[in-house]
Amino acid sequence: MPPQVLYRAPSPEVITLTASFRGNCLFRYEYDSEPRQERFFQRDEVLRLNFSNSLKIWASNGGAVQGRIKGEEVSFGRSGQVTARLLKWRITDGEYELVLYPLY
Questions:
Q1: Is residue 48 a contact partner of residue 31, using CB atoms and an 8 Å limit?
Q2: Percentage of the residues of the chain whose pLDDT score is greater than 90
């Protein structure tokens, strides 16, 4: 999976990721300079994370996580797929882009 531009802005801003869980998933996340957190989520649970620089996520079941940023759906993988992603601001030609990078 190549890096995917999710959003463009004139300057970095605080972003909210809403993660809705469609099934069982061990979900680990680390954002900005906060310590890493980990929790087991079940169907119909929702997690909202606000970050300003970067967000790393790891999921034991990428297909069980439905992500949303600025109203757009963000895919974290297929059902049963162990996945890791990085959401991070980068600057390209004077414009900031929020990019979703695969970590492996």
A1: no
A2: 97
Burial of 102 from C-beta contacts in 10 A (0-12 / 13-18 / 19+): middle
Burial (CB count <10 Å: 0-12, 13-18, 19+), residue 93: exposed
- Identify the DSSP state of 11: S
pLDDT in tens, 41-69: 999 999 999 999 999 999 999 999 999 99
Q: Which residue's structure tokens are 């620089």?
A: 53
Q: What single string gives the DSSP state of each residue in 53-101?
A: SEEEEEES-GGGEEEEETTEEEE---TT--EEEEEEEEEETTEEEEEEE
- Measured in whole angstroms, the distance separating CA 60 from the mean position of its chain's CA atoms is 14
Q: Are 76 and 104 in contact (CB under 8 A)?
A: no
Considering only CA atoms, which of 55, 56, 76 is closest in space to residue 64?
Answer: 76
